[in-house]
Design a protein that fits this description.
- It is built from 15 helices and 25 strands.
- The protein is an alpha+beta fold.
Length: about 550
């Protein structure tokens, strides 16, 4: 029996083996400079026009730095969510079951089990050893945005903190800029209500430093819980166990009472100063802009532990699409759908789409409704979406089933012809800013647009499906360039059409247009106002 079978879930290295077996892992053995080459190289698969399905995880086995140092540990990036298929393998369920898996896991967590011996503590460097070549400088931490970032940054973190009053732990994904072999500049967002921030406030009130463990390369279910927005007071280790279908194995940290994933690759333990802060940044943030230098938290490292054969995990973030946005999108969209359809009971909602490229999911949300949904239900759904997670939904747009939320051309099409802005638009003021670059504003708003059909409309002006399909066969027979159909690629009815007009069209397509001319001649009228609907002209 393998270790993965014994524990009931994959650790990061088991996950990489699964990605390799699925053809989703690219291994680079050539020397790659972590400070100037690694992140730009992987970035090209997000900015180089490569379809999401063709993105892969990258494993770098020969990592160097700007001073030509060669690192002992390899680096993996893109392994958590280079695309939805990678995320699906990490979750252990097909892509279309991810939402249900999250909902079930949140509702029925499985408590972790403590073990005495942890794989992540096979190698231990105590506080006195961190400045003698075994500290943060010994880790192959990439520079994420060369040319702008001020330091190598820990990015793919699952940061463990604990509420000193309740004892409940929290997992959060926080960035950490390297300052010294034993010091990190830590970014906790004070305005986003992160669990670690709330814990620090309590420690500060006590005048105590807050213990923290920055876990790097943990089992995927734990890694996915870090950036997820879960209810306060929920121990994410239990949710991770429910995702995996087996309790997570945890062990006590070496320098605190925090319980850490026993199968993690690397753990950086430390204390966050309750009173002192120092400049941190600039750093390329996940909203797609550089977060400029500002005062932030100081983490004093107390120990670094790892597996003997550890792999350092990094994540591609910054301008979206990115690995961090895929992690959010694949989980957030079904969670919003579950909330609106199953919790609020708005059964007519078909899909929730969160726009990813450049906007980073939170700003543009498109909700797809079934045709004929009552206007009151459409607006109830949009109000429900904007209240589910405060910072989500700066632009909130309702569309019909024939409009693909991921196709902004189609969304703008609906907004242009199906929304009367005098009646179908509302600006909700005094909304939180959410995650984004600093602009000097203190609050924002939400623009809500109902771009669904309010009445029957004429068909979409493209050839009917059977004619387009026939033409595609001819196209392919002629050896013309491969087609990638874009919706809409054929015409379809939207309610305002008749059998009589169908007959006219059939005659025209069969070459019998003269018969249509004879019909129209028979309906000639005197004094009819041009552009008047023929159905509104009295016969006789």
């Amino acid at each position: 029996m393998s270790e993965a079978e014994a524990r009931g879930y994959n650790d990061m290295q088991d996950h990489l083996a699964a990605l390799d077996a699925a053809g989703l892992l690219t291994t680079i053995d050539a020397p790659i400079n972590k400070d100037s080459e690694l992140s730009p190289l992987v970035r090209w698969q997000f900015r180089g026009g490569i379809p999401e399905a063709e993105r892969k995880a990258f494993l770098f086995t020969n990592v160097t730095d700007a001073s030509n140092r060669v690192y002992e540990l390899p680096v993996i990036t893109g392994a958590l969510a280079g695309n939805a298929a990678i995320y699906s393998i990490g979750m252990g369920v097909p892509v279309d079951e991810i939402g249900a898996c999250w909902a079930k896991a949140i509702a029925s967590p499985i408590a972790p089990i403590e073990v005495a011996s942890a794989n992540c503590q096979e190698v231990v460097f105590g506080e006195s050893e961190l400045t003698s070549g075994h500290g943060l400088d010994a880790l192959p931490v990439p520079v994420s945005t060369p040319g702008y970032d001020s330091a190598p940054y820990l990015t793919a973190t699952a940061c463990v903190t604990r509420d000193p009053d309740t004892g409940i732990q929290n997992l959060g994904t926080y960035r950490g800029g390297l300052k010294a072999p034993n010091r990190i500049g830590l970014k906790l967002f004070m305005n986003l209500g992160q669990g670690g921030t709330a814990h620090w406030e309590k420690y500060r009130a006590r005048g105590e430093a807050m213990p923290i463990a920055m876990v790097i390369g943990c089992p995927p279910p734990i890694a996915y819980c870090g950036p997820q927005k879960l209810p306060k007071g929920v121990d994410e280790m239990g949710v991770a166990g429910a995702i995996a279908g087996a309790p997570m194995l945890v062990s006590r940290a070496r320098t605190s009472d925090l319980m850490i994933p026993a199968d993690a690759e690397i753990v950086v333990e430390g204390l966050i100063d309750p009173n002192h802060f120092e400049p941190e940044g600039p750093f390329g943030e996940s909203h797609g802009y550089i977060n400029l230098e500002e005062y932030n938290f100081v983490l004093q490292v107390t120990a670094i532990t790892r597996k003997k054969n550890a792999i350092f995990t990094s994540i591609i973030s910054q301008v979206t699409p990115s690995e961090s946005s895929v992690i959010k999108r694949v989980a957030y969209e079904p969670l919003f759908l579950n909330h609106l359809r199953d919790q609020l009971g708005i059964k007519s909602i078909v899909r929730v789409g969160m726009h990813e490229p450049l906007t980073n999911l939170r700003k543009v949300v498109v909700i797809q409704f079934s045709r004929g949904t009552a206007r009151t239900e459409i607006w109830r759904g949009m109000y429900g979406a904007m209240s589910f997670q405060e910072p989500v939904g700066k632009y909130l747009i309702a569309v019909d089933e024939d409009i693909d939320p991921n196709n902004l051309d189609a969304v703008f099409w609906a907004m242009s012809y199906r929304a009367n802005l005098a009646e179908d638009c509302e600006l909700i003021r005094h909304r939180p800013l959410g995650h984004g670059p600093k602009t000097g504003a203190t609050e924002d708003g939400t623009l809500v647009i109902d771009a669904t059909l309010k009445a029957d409309m004429a068909p979409v002006a493209l050839p009917k499906r059977e004619y387009m399909e026939n033409a595609r066969e001819i196209w392919e027979r002629l050896g013309l360039p491969p087609l990638k159909p874009e919706v809409p690629w054929h015409g379809y009815e939207l309610g305002d059409w008749s059998d009589e007009w169908d007959k006219l069209a059939e005659r025209a397509a069969s070459g019998d247009w003269i018969a249509n001319g004879e019909r129209s001649h028979q309906q000639r009228r005197v004094g009819v106002i041009p552009n008047t609907d023929v159905r509104k002209v009295p016969k006789g």
